[in-house]
Prior knowledge:
- Helices cover 15% and strands 32% of the residues.
- It is of the alpha+beta class.
- Strands 3, 4, 5, 6, 9, 10, 11, 12 and 13 form a 9-stranded mixed β-sheet that branches.
- The mean pLDDT is 88.
Amino acid sequence: MPGDQIAVDGRAVELPPKAIGRVLIYNKPEGELVTRRDPAGRPSVFGRLPPGRWIAVGRLDINSAGLLLFTDDGELANRLMHPRYGVEREYAVRVQGPLGPQQLERLKRGVELEDGRAAFERIEAADPREWQSANRWYRVMLKEGRNREVRRMFEAVGARVSRLLRVRYGPVELPRDLRAGQWREIPNPVKLQKL
Length: 195
């Protein structure tokens, strides 16, 4: 257990931390599926990754883009995805039209979806200079990842999402210089081990 001490002949012994597998950051473009095979032959994120037995950490639907993590470590994948660990996921969301204060409050307090109540941990409007346009950007944060949850939450308050981009998963942010369709290996994924 974390915090336990091990001693041999009365002397404390330090064990090295459990090594974790490889972790990739991938910038998913819109139009790719997070599945190994698609009967319709649509492109899959797995077609762009290096050889290996990669586990997708969470999913993004075909119309969403941004940060995906992949690992070859099943235990790490579980810790990153299971709701009991409360790993934060942050998104940049473009919504058609402005949201009123009541809609924003409902999204913070929680809305009923067909699979249960959902609420943003945080929601904030992006750059106020863009407030004159027909579309508005918001930054939202969740600690779970149900199917199409962000889109469904906005729909529950009468808003339509026109663009959805995951920008952070736990401590990992989408690198600004990682173009859509590219991946990069995290050389020392120690910060993921602490989740």
